[in-house]
Amino acid sequence: MSDYDSSSRKQLLGLTAYLTAAARAYESQREDRLFDDPWAASLAGPEGVERFASTEDQGGSIIVRTRYFDEWLQQITYKEGLRQIVLPAAGLDTRPFRLNWPPATRFFELDQAPILSYKEAVLQALQAQPHCERILVSTDLAQPDWTSALLEAGFDPSTPSAWLIEGLLAYLPLEQSQQLLSAISQIAAENSWLAFNAVHSAMLSSPLTRPRIERLARAGSPWIGPIDDPVGLLEALGWETSFVSSAHKGYEYGRAVFPFIGLEELSPETERLYHMLVTAKRKGPPSALADH
Q: Which H or E element spans position 81?
């Protein structure tokens, strides 16, 4: 761990990775926790834990999406037989370690080499052992050849796969998100699954959410990539899509999500102020619309 001091970690990972790990550590301490991530606090480090303690929402959206995507991944692996899982921008995620997986599950974690190296140093120091085959792929998703790195690592494009893009797309321009989703669509076989969280443009302009949006911008992590129509976007790429708001799932799980409004106030309009938890199944090749 001596190769990664606090300033190095901050440069490599950024505030959002710290806070995400710290939120998972916070939830793991609860008796009624929605998941257990025993490595999250070490990955977040003291700085991440301290920063998280000062946030106004106590990580509700992170906690809810973590549980939701946990359930989704477990369902499509155990019930639908998928054995290839891909996490673009894996960051400090520990699902290969903290969840049980069916035999022969292969888990591909994609991220830049320094981030993967930092995470490996922490997990090895803690003697963490994955519950599946875990394959690290050092690559930059902003470069067009990232899919080649995944294929070279052993990903089989002829076999259905599961893709989870968590906590990334809001920080990308819409065009870059479209490029990423298009690239996935080109190598994901029929009956593959895809999931991600996205924000609506209403969230970026509402007075109810402005304090959080401004805090993220001041921290150097602005949300710049709303996706107002994930169903239409993915339909053009050959996916059958649905989504649910983090507020709706938050009430189901018993976790409040910022902005805090009552269940009776939820409507199609107010739910735009929360993350959309999107899941989609690959039904066919991209349409001609995907090329425009």
A: none
This prediction has a pTM of: 0.92
CA separation for the pair 49, 9 (Å, rounded)? 14
The answer to whether 250 and 66 are in contact (CB under 8 A) is no
Q: What is the pLDDT of residues 172-222, one digit of tens each?
A: 999 999 999 999 999 999 999 999 999 999 999 999 888 888 888 887 778
The token duo for 171 is 């920080």
Handedness of CA 27, 43, 53, 169 (dihedral sign): negative
Q: Which residues pair with 239 in a beta bridge?
A: 282
What's the rounded Cα separation, in Å, for the pair 69 and 123?
22
Q: What are phi and psi of 138, to 5 degrees?
A: -80, 115
- For residue 240, give the 3-state DSSP assignment: strand
Q: Say if residues 282 and 191 touch (Cβ distance below 8 Å).
A: yes
Which residues, including other chains, have CB under 8 Å from residue 175's CB and lie 6 or more apart? none
Q: Which is more confidently placed, 42 or 51? A: 42
| Encoded tokens for 207 | 């007075």
CA 209 to chain centre: 21
| CA separation for the pair 275, 176 (Å, rounded) | 19
Nearest to 43 by CA among 158, 136, 126: 126
C-alpha span between 239 and 181 (Å, rounded): 11
Q: Which domains does the chain have, with CATH numbers?
A: 58-291 (3.40.50.150)
Q: Strand, coil or helix: what is 246? A: helix
DSSP state, residue 267: -
Smallest CA-to-CA distance from 165 within 156, 176, 151, 153 is with 176
CA-CA-CA-CA torsion sign (102, 84, 77, 271):
positive
**Strands across the sheet containing 193-198:** 133-138, 106-111, 84-87, 162-165, 193-198, 276-282, 239-245
Contacts by residues 206-210 (CB-CB < 8 Å, ≥ 24 positions apart): 206/259, 206/273, 208/259, 208/261, 208/273, 209/258, 209/259, 209/273
Contact 209, 157 (CB under 8 A): no
